[in-house]
């Protein structure tokens, strides 16, 4: 192995969006832009495909116009801005009044586009999605209020992604990126070409093995994920995030009023099974939510009237609603104001020529009350000049619509305290709580990215340097008489091992990109796809071949992987033939493929994890159903020195009186079963319920030789995870003396909330009995068995237990530490004589 080549491969794992745009000097930026706007425009133009996530009122409109001006001036052609209809006037105003350039021309059809040979044009999303406007007619495009791309399966996203894939310059701009699910950020990345959506899902997100179709951001990948996001997106809350003055950018105080209205629970009705419900709950389903909206309409309208009446007669009000029935009832309730020209409603069936003057008129203070929907006027409009009070006539789960609508008045240049009134019924408590949770998550996301911008600015090379520090680990070694346990990258470690020194290799390799055990780039699971995984395996497999003795066995535990339709875009779960690819990789480097052992798994348990084999789904369409996925042990052999005969250079012989015909028949069969027994991980110790962990500990301790250091280490792990009580002793030293009682329950406690490991656990570890059978079959007593992915040292542990020597390499330090404890204990049992054995050795017993 070439060390430099491997280091270069590891460094290539650091991912950042490429820079494919224009280098613009600061003095060439229009002087009307503020410094923070200038810096973002230069950064976006240099990247060529970038996202601008800037707080409401910080100048996204001006930045996009300047980007368009620079690109059309230097590259020619047309630049397209796609925006909601309600904000088109903002672009036209800022272009003429601030930049002093021609206003973007609103176009409806491709014919109108082609009538303009160059310059900036603007249209709305529907014209692109459902009309004939062709993105290939443009040099560049910017999507304003681009949160429409948040949903992977939406028609807008699925239409826009392929349509704009060939446009040279692509930009998105919004103030509310992915507020409740971080993974939605990658949908923007997919549109910008920063990374394929499916690849990003695989790289950054782990499947929740307890809940199908639920993908969570790997906690141990968070820093790398955010640095990657910051390579193609900038988050800006205030100019000070980029080191500039915040003068004029102070947000006014925001006061939120909850108006929780009672409901009659006696009318809760029945569920789909005919059971009478005790409470009304709008969060139970669409039918329940619609009924609650319908039944509570009158009291919500009355509450809105009460709120308006309680204010000053000069106050201007925004009333946000979602249903047409709500609009008509509002018009009736405020009929007096409507007749006086002080109440107007804007709705979807109005044509643009009617709607836009009404929206603009409210923003200019021409009338007092505007009733409309967030989907119509909730994005891009500036109402802060005359209005500082808003009523949400109802609430829902759509946080993006809510936060966008709220910031039509809570934005920079607002001079008064903003009042937001939320009207909802007590049956909508769960909806309200969910909305507030999403708001908190939104603030967390913005805060995380703001911190990166404040700390590192817009310079990507600084972040890449920081990420490079996660390459490598400090080598540690612990040796016993029967084992060697090493904390290191297995490729680097094996490069220094003696040739033909191992009698067997037995391991469970990482399953491609599915699992990671530590944040180091050396981790095999830390790869973008299968191709990159096997590229790293190309460094390892030759080393495995080199250190293995001629004619001896490498037993590799693998499992084929499920690729979910939501990630691949195929609509149905499909199988990644990972085991076949592993066999090809080992054969490519000189191993002989000898056999495939199939280890069955529980199909019901697998379905509970994936929902891909459901009985109900099968009844709907069985063509989408696969079968349960077994595990495999692939058996490879290093070629023996003398190929004219089949025996290994050092054969593995069997005493027929010990290795019986019956055992041979079971082992020779390609179908194996396992008890599933394995070593407990540190996290599993920590996750045992508080009211059971003492019993588990006592049972474990009485069955094993007491080890003070192990006792302390287990307590330490629980304390670090907040699981070690301060008021009583959880891990009492066990007693085998009948006169000393240590199992008295001193208190009853509720189960503590389990704190989860910050790494994705391998859900298919190599089981103890499988390792026992493999080592027993393919080695002689006293020989050495190597596991390059040793984890908790399962393979070395079993090797020592059945009379061999164990050699394990593990990258994750925590697992390695625990594995060392297991190795110490098993060696102690194998080498320390019992009392009677000691007497025998001393000749005191005949």
Major sheet attributes: 9 strands, mixed
What's the β-strand tally? 26
User: In CATH's first tier, which class of the largest domain applies?
Assistant: Alpha Beta
Which percent range fits the helix content? 25-40%
How would you explain this protein's 3D organization?
By secondary structure, this protein is an alpha/beta fold. The chain has 3 domains: 13-242, Rossmann fold; 254-439, Rossmann fold (3-Layer(aba) Sandwich); 476-679 and 761-835, Rossmann fold (3-Layer(aba) Sandwich). 39% of the residues lie in helices and 15% in strands. The chain has 33 helices and 26 strands. The strands form 5 sheets. Strands 16-17-26-25-18-19-23-22-24 form a 9-stranded mixed sheet, sandwiched between helices. A 7-stranded parallel sheet has the order 3-4-2-5-6-1-9, with helices on both faces. Strands 10-15-14-11-13-12 form a 6-stranded parallel sheet, with helices on both faces. Strand 16 (476-479) and strand 17 (483-487) form a beta hairpin. 40% of the residues are buried.
